[in-house]
Amino acid sequence: MLVVLSNDLPLAVRGRMKLWFIEPRPNVFISGVKDSVADDVVKYLYKHCSVDSGNIIFQRIKQPPGYKVRGIGTPRRELISISGFQLIQEKQK
Question: What is the separation of C-alpha 76 from the centre of its chain, rounded to a whole number of angstroms?
Answer without folding.
Answer: 13
